[in-house]
TrEMBL record:
SUPFAM superfamilies: Cytochrome c
Keyword terms: Electron transport, Heme, Iron, Metal-binding, Transport
Protein name (Swiss-Prot/TrEMBL): Cytochrome c
Pfam families from the UniProt entry: Cytochrome_CBB3
Source taxonomy: Bacteria, Bacillati, Bacillota, Bacilli, Bacillales
Length: 118
């Protein structure tokens, strides 16, 4: 009798595992859902500089030379505007998220501005 119970539990566990394998989203799907979408805007360098001066220089320096945060003077050579938008929006490591402090358009403008720094 115990063998039948154990066999039944094994079958149920295997069936449950099979159901989970086919219903849970994959890594790519989860990553795509979590990635913020950058709105299409036209770059306004003056506004981007104003946002940077108000929010970024305390960590990245007044010339974006770095400090508590990394040097951003040539960040566009390493990261695209979309990648920068994601980092500014969600935060990363010691960098805080700015999604609740800045509008999406402001973040996109800063990301485009920084992506041109090469």
């Amino acid at each position: 009798m115990q063998k039948w119970i154990m066999s039944g539990l094994l079958v149920v566990a295997c069936a449950f595992a099979a159901v989970l394998m086919f219903t849970l989203p994959g890594r790519e799907q989860v990553a795509q859902e979590e990635k913020p979408q950058m709105p299409e805007i036209t770059l306004n360098a003056e506004q981007a500089e104003a946002v940077i001066k108000a929010n970024c220089i305390s960590c990245h320096g007044d010339q974006l030379q770095g400090g508590a945060g990394p040097n951003l003077q040539k960040v566009g050579a390493e990261l695209s505007a979309d990648q920068l938008f994601g980092t500014i929006t969600k935060g990363k490591g010691m960098m805080p998220s700015f999604k609740d402090k800045l509008k999406e358009e402001e973040i996109a403008n800063v990301a485009m501005y920084l992506s041109e720094k090469k």
